[in-house]
Amino acid sequence: MAGNSRITSTRSVYARRIFMVHKVVAEQVAGGISTTAIRIRESGIERRARFRGLAEPLSLLVALAVLIGVFSLLNERFLTASNLQNVLTQSAIPLIVAVGATLVILLGSIDLSVEGVMGATGMTWILLSANSRGGADLGPWAWVIALGVALVIGVASGLIFTALKVPSFIVTLGMWYVGLGIATMLYGTDLLPRLEDEGLKGWTSRISFGLPNSFWVALLVIGLGIFVLRSTRIGRVTLAIGNSETIVRSAGLPAFRVKVAVFAIAALLSGLGGILATVQLDIGSPTVGSGVLFIVIPAVVIGGTHLGGGKGGILRTVLGVFLLTILNNGLILSGVESSYQSAVTGAILVAAIVFAAWSQRDRLQVAK
Length: 368
Prior knowledge:
Blueprint: H1 2-74, H2 81-106, H3 114-127, H4 140-163, H5 168-187, E1 207-208, E2 211-212, H6 213-231, H7 233-243, H8 245-250, H9 255-281, H10 293-302, H11 314-333, H12 338-358, H13 361-364
Antiparallel strand pairs: 1-2
């Protein structure tokens, strides 16, 4: 009996050991299958993300090619050298302003003060430069003071938005009218101030090394914007805020300062656009930036920058600006009335925002 019990005990030990071995093997196999499945799933997600990342700019390039093809068939003047130079000149100021707008939207915010800042800066600059009203010609200091006005408006917008927690939509809408009010007061009741500096008259459309001067300025701004976004702390924190400001703050990153800085940069670029628009017109006007906002915001959205922030880029915005500029230029050459042009641009704006925001509707939490 004792021998039988020892045999039974030994068999049970071996059975338990075999069971444990099978269990470990099964867990390892299951773990391997699970890990493999996860890796396959992750690689599929990465492939889809890369495809989407390439598909968006490629679709814009295809749309540009289609527009160019259609308008070149409708009007033989479309592909002439003079018209292509016009397209570059027309796109220069929106490109400059759109770089700042892209940074703001990457935060998950929006800047509607563009036209007011352009008006205030343009009027300040021309009244401090050689103009038909007389007064002091401050030369380079006129640029510094005028851009200083833009900077003050941008910093004020950023501080109110960040410190007082007022939505950027409301803040910048108010600053639009603040800038417009400043421009109107500077304009006064006298005659239009005309630019008297012969060296600056028509400078924006003059050709240097095959391109208009204003487009060279736009290329410089685009290059600086890409550098800031990709290679500086401001750019990296901007993208991080757009993805999750809570995580940025918990990590101890300077969210407050970066948000104010981004609004300041955007206002400076709007101010630069206002000065160049004033040079282009040769006169000062409070409404020198009229219509620019409705090119810039659709261009940023059409380019693929998410309204919720965190995803997008300046090069995509460049494609969006060119798309809208070529569309407007082609409609003009095709003889389409200005009222219809506005309708087409408005329809594109609505369609672009719906398309861009549809996948983010839960994140944006838009209700009524």
